[in-house]
Amino acid sequence: xxHRKEPSTRPLASLIATITVGPGVIAFVAFPAFAxxxxxxxxxxxxSHTYGGG
Length: 54
Description:
mainly alpha
């Protein structure tokens, strides 16, 4: 005999929490990658340096 699962007492809060987790994880991963694009002029106190072929 299976037991009935009782309905959640706060379905709207549960839905909002579920919807915000996905975009939150995407933003957490994506924004640091966009912040380190390396585009723009080199700073005056920086020196150009190459690390060979690799």
